[in-house]
Specification:
InterPro entries: Hid-1/Ecm30. Pfam families: Hid1 (PF12722). This is Protein HID1 isoform X5. One of its GO terms (cellular component) is Golgi medial cisterna. This protein is mainly alpha-helical and about 775 residues long. Helix content is about 50%, strand content about 5%. A 3-stranded antiparallel β-sheet has the order 5-4-6. The chain has a two-stranded antiparallel sheet with strand order 1-2. A two-stranded antiparallel ribbon has the order 3-7. The longest helix is centred in the N-terminal third of the chain and has 22 residues. The two termini are about 45 Å apart. About 10% of the residues have low confidence.
Length: about 775
C-alpha cells in the first residue's frame, strides 16, 4: 500500500542508520524486493527515489556540517546505487528521473513554478557535483580556525579544492582516508547514474547520447572543470608501489586505489563521445597561459571532452603520460620477493583512457611519439596481449591493445622509435632474443597468431597492418624476428589456407608488402631478413606458381581435411621462453565475460561464422578501419582515399589491390563467413596476378647465385660468413624503382564508437563485483556469458 510522502518517520528509517556500508545496503535490500515494490507499489518506489535525492540536495545545500548529515548523504547515495539499475531495466520507469518534481525550481530554492521545475536526474547530478567539493566531507576545509563561519558551499570556488596536483593545479592536498572513501561512494553513484546506457541495445548509429552524461558534462555543472581535473590528476598521480617498501600493501590497506578505479571509470564514461560525428577542436600551438588552451574554437558541448582536447602544456602531457605508463607497467613489475608489490587491476580502464587522450587530443598523440616514452606504453600493451592470447574472456582487452597500436603505427615516429634496443627483461612467454622493440612486437604478434585462440582470427589483418605501417622504418631485424615473419608467410601461403576463405590471401599481401618495404627502404641493416628470405625462397616460388585450375583448387581443399592447422608452431624454432615467465593460460571455467558488438573492419573468422560477436559485419576488411595515405618525398602524408590511384613500377600493389579486389570480395567474404564458400579459378587469378613479388624475385635472382657460389668455393655451412657477405652487399640499381610508402591510418567511425561503448561498459560491469551493482539485472548492451 502507498505510504504518504509526508510520513517522515517511515522514510527516515532508510537513511538514519549510522553504521551501514554499501555492502550492507546491498544485503538488506534484495533484488526481488526492489522489483516487487516496482511492480506492486510503484508510488512507494517513486517516493523513495525522490526522498533520497531530496536528502542529497539538502546535504549539498547545507554543506553537511554534522556527522549525522554526512551519514544520511552516504546512506542515500548507497540506496540510490542499489535501486537505480532496477529503474533502468524497466522501460516504463526509464523516464522517471527525467520527469519534474513539484517545487524543485531551476531558478532557485523552492520556486513552485512547474514550467521551470528541474527533472529529478538534474537535481541528483548537481547535488553529487556539489557534494564532491564539500569541505570537511570530500575536500579539506580552508578555514583558518574553527571560530570562522562554515564555508558557504555556494560561494565556494571549487577550482581551489582540486583533489590532487597535476594538470592545472600545483598544490597536493594532505591525503585523507575519510575524504577518499566519501568521494569513492559518490563516484560509484555517479557511474550508476550513467549506466542507463547498459540497458539500451547497441545501435549502429551511435547518435544516442547518454542524457545523464550530457547534462553532467554541460555548463549547467559549475564544477565540471575542477572535477575533470580532480579525476584526471587522481588517476595519473597514483603510485601503487608507494614508498618502495616491500609488502606495504599487506601491512596497511591502500584506500587510494578504490578511489582511483572509480575516478578512471567516471572519466572514461564521461568521455564516451563519438569523435567521428563531432567537430574536434583544432589546436593552434600556443603553450602559454592556463592549462587549457583558450585560443581554440569552442569544440564539443561535452565539457570533459572539450577540456581534454585543450590540454596543451608539455609538463601536463609529461605528467599524464608518465602516470599512465607507471600504472600500465605495474602488473609487469617483477621483484625478487614474490607478491611483494601491489598489482593494480584497472589496466583496461587505463587503456580506454589512453585511447581517448590520443583520439581527442592530437597534440598529446604527437607528444607521446616525440620521445621513446611511447615504448613505456608499448611494452605493457604487448605484455597484456601476449598474456591474454589464450583467454577467451579477455578478447576485448586484445582488441583495445591492438587498436591502440594501430593508431600509433599510423605515425612515422612510432616506427622510428621501435628501433631502440629492447633491454628491459619483462618475463614474457616468448622466445629469448637480442634486438629492438620492433623485434619484440613481431615476436609477440607471431605468438598471438600461432598460439592464440580461434576468436582472435579477425585481428590478424590489424596485426599485420601494424607491421606494414612500421616496416619502412625498421633498421635491423633480429634473426628471431626475421624467421617469425617468414614462418607466418609460409603458414599463410599454403594452398588450402589461401583457398579456404575469401579474405585469407590479404594476409599474404600484407607480409609481401612488409618485405618489399624493408628491402627497398632499409636493405643495408637487414641482412638477417634477406638471409631468411633466401633460405625460404621456395615459398616465394610456390606463390608465383600458385595453381589456378579448379581440380588443383579442390585438391588443395581436400588436403585441408587431413592436414594439421597451418599455424601450429611446427616450422618455427621456438627456443626457450624468457626466465620467470608463465605460459598464457585460458580462462578458468565459469569465468564471466561480456559479449562485444562486431568491429567495423573485422569480419568474423573465416568459415567459423560464430566469433561470439553478434553477427553483424559492418566492414569490408581492414579498409573500413583505416584510411590509406602515401608518404611523399618530404615525409608528409597524402590521403589516397580521394586521390587518383598512382601506378608505380611495382604496380602500386598496396593501393590497387585493396581498392579493386577487396571491394568485389566483400560479398564473397560474407558468403565465406556463413560457410558457403567456393573458390573459383577467376577469383584466384584476380588476386594472384597482383601479388607484389617483383622486388623479392629480383633480389633472389641477384643474390642466390652469389650465396651459392660462396658456399661452394669455401665449402661453407656457416651462417655467419654468408651474413657478413650480405651485410656488405648492395642492390643499388638492381631493384625495381621503389614504390611509394603506403600507411594505413586508423579511421574512427560510428561502428568503432559503438564497439568502445560496449567494451567499456562490459569492463565496468565485470569489475564492480563488491558490491555487484549491475549483477543479475536485465542489461541489453551486451550479453553476460560464461566461458
Amino acid at each position: 500500500m502507498p505510504v504518504e510522502a509526508t510520513d517522515d518517520a517511515f522514510w527516515d528509517q532508510f537513511w538514519a542508520d549510522t553504521a551501514t556500508s554499501v555492502q550492507d545496503v546491498f544485503a538488506l535490500v534484495p533484488a526481488a524486493e526492489i522489483r516487487a515494490v516496482r511492480e506492486e507499489s510503484p508510488s512507494n518506489l517513486a517516493t523513495l527515489c525522490y526522498k533520497a535525492v531530496e536528502k542529497l540536495v539538502q546535504g549539498a545545500e547545507s554543506g553537511c556540517h554534522s556527522e549525522k548529515e554526512r551519514q544520511i548523504v552516504l546512506n542515500c547515495s548507497r540506496l540510490l546505487t542499489r535501486v537505480l539499475p532496477y529503474i533502468f531495466e524497466d522501460p516504463d520507469w526509464r523516464g522517471f528521473f527525467w520527469s519534474t518534481v513539484p517545487g524543485a525550481g531551476r531558478g532557485g530554492q523552492g520556486e513552485d513554478d512547474d514550467e521551470n521545475a528541474r527533472p529529478l536526474a538534474e537535481s541528483l547530478l548537481l547535488a553529487i557535483a556539489d557534494l564532491l567539493f564539500c569541505p570537511d566531507f570530500t575536500v579539506q576545509s580552508h578555514r583558518r580556525s574553527t571560530v570562522d563561519s562554515a564555508e558557504d558551499i555556494h560561494s565556494l570556488d571549487s577550482c581551489e579544492y582540486i583533489w590532487e596536483a597535476g594538470v592545472g593545479f600545483a598544490h597536493s592536498p594532505q591525503p585523507s582516508y575519510i575524504h577518499d572513501m566519501n568521494r569513492m561512494e559518490l563516484l560509484k553513484l555517479l557511474v550508476t547514474c550513467f549506466s542507463e546506457a547498459m540497458y539500451l541495445p547497441p545501435a549502429p548509429d551511435s547518435g544516442n547520447t547518454n542524457p545523464w552524461v550530457q547534462f553532467f558534462c554541460s555548463a549547467e555543472n559549475r564544477h565540471a572543470l575542477p572535477l575533470f581535473t580532480s579525476l584526471l590528476n587522481t588517476v595519473c598521480a597514483y603510485d601503487p608501489v608507494g614508498y618502495g617498501i616491500p609488502y606495504n600493501h599487506l601491512i596497511f590497506s591502500d584506500y587510494r586505489e578504490p578511489l582511483v578505479e572509480e575516478a578512471a571509470q567516471v572519466l572514461i564514461v564521461t568521455l564516451d563521445h563519438d569523435s567521428a560525428t563531432s567537430t574536434s577542436p583544432t589546436v593552434d600551438g600556443t603553450t602559454t597561459g592556463t592549462a587549457m588552451d583558450d585560443a581554440d574554437p569552442p569544440g564539443p558541448e561535452n565539457l570533459f571532452v572539450n577540456y581534454l582536447s585543450r590540454i596543451h602544456r608539455e609538463e601536463d602531457f609529461q605528467f599524464i603520460l608518465k602516470g599512465i605508463a607507471r600504472l600500465l607497467s605495474n602488473p609487469l613489475v617483477q621483484t625478487y620477493l614474490p607478491n611483494s608489490t601491489k598489482k593494480i587491476q584497472f589496466h583496461q580502464e587505463l587503456l580506454v583512457l589512453f585511447w581517448k587522450l590520443c583520439d581527442f587530443n592530437k597534440k598529446f598523440l604527437f607528444f607521446v611519439l616525440k620521445s621513446s616514452d611511447v615504448l613505456d606504453i608499448l611494452v605493457p600493451i604487448l605484455y597484456f596481449l601476449n598474456d591474454a592470447r589464450a583467454d577467451q574472456s579477455r578478447v576485448g582487452l586484445m582488441h583495445i591493445g591492438v587498436f591502440i597500436l594501430l593508431l600509433l603505427s599510423g605515425e612515422r615516429n612510432f616506427g622510428v622509435r621501435l628501433n631502440k634496443p629492447y633491454s628491459v627483461r619483462v618475463p614474457m612467454d616468448i622466445p629469448v632474443f637480442t634486438g629492438t622493440h620492433a623485434d619484440l612486437l613481431i615476436v609477440v604478434f607471431h605468438k598471438i597468431i600461432t598460439s592464440g585462440h580461434q576468436r582472435l582470427q579477425p585481428l590478424f589483418d590489424c596485426l599485420l597492418t601494424i607491421v606494414v605501417n612500421v616496416s619502412p622504418y625498421l633498421k635491423s631485424l633480429s634473426m628471431v624476428a626475421a624467421n617469425k615473419l617468414l614462418h607466418l608467410l609460409e603458414a599463410f601461403s599454403t594452398t588450402w589456407f589461401l583457398f579456404s576463405a575469401a579474405q585469407n590471401h590479404h594476409l599474404v599481401f600484407f607480409l609481401l608488402e612488409v618485405f618489399n618495404n624493408i628491402i627497398q627502404y632499409q636493405f643495408d641493416g637487414n641482412s638477417n631478413l634477406v638471409y631468411a628470405i633466401i633460405r625460404k625462397r621456395s615459398v616465394f616460388h610456390q606463390l608465383a606458381n600458385l595453381p589456378t585450375d579448379l581440380p588443383a583448387i579442390h585438391k588443395a581443399l581436400q588436403r585441408r581435411r587431413r592436414a594439421p592447422e597451418p599455424l601450429s608452431r611446427t616450422g618455427s624454432q621456438e627456443g626457450a621462453s624468457m626466465e620467470g615467465s608463465r605460459p598464457a593460460a585460458p580462462a578458468e571455467p565459469g569465468t564471466l565475460k561480456t559479449s562485444l558488438v562486431a568491429t567495423p573492419g573485422l569480419a568474423p573468422a573465416g568459415g567459423g561464422g560464430g566469433c561470439g560477436y553478434q553477427q553483424q559485419v559492418w566492414g569490408e576488411g581492414i579498409d573500413k578501419l583505416t584510411e590509406k595515405s602515401q608518404v611523399s618525398e618530404d615525409g608528409t602524408l597524402r590521403s589516397l582515399e580521394s586521390a587518383p590511384q598512382q601506378n608505380s613500377a611495382e604496380g602500386s600493389p598496396a593501393a590497387e589491390e585493396p581498392s579493386q579486389v577487396w571491394r568485389e570480395q566483400r560479398r564473397l567474404s560474407n558468403a565465406s563467413a556463413s560457410g558457403q564458400w567456393n573458390p573459383t579459378s577467376e577469383w584466384v587469378l584476380s588476386w594472384k596476378s597482383k601479388l607484389p613479388l617483383q622486388t623479392i624475385m629480383r633480389l633472389l635472382q641477384v643474390l642466390v647465385p652469389q650465396v651459392e657460389k660462396i658456399c661452394i668455393d669455401k665449402g661453407l655451412t656457416d651462417e655467419s660468413e654468408i651474413l657478413r657477405f650480405l651485410q656488405h652487399g648492395t642492390l643499388v640499381g638492381l631493384l625495381p624503382v621503389p614504390h611509394p610508402i603506403l600507411i594505413r591510418k586508423y579511421q574512427a567511425n560510428s561502428g568503432t564508437a559503438m564497439w568502445f561503448r560496449t567494451y567499456m561498459w562490459g569492463v565496468i560491469y565485470l569489475r564492480n563485483v563488491d558490491p555487484p551493482v549491475w549483477y543479475d539485472t536485465d542489461v541489453k548492451l551486451f550479453e553476460i556469458q560464461r566461458v
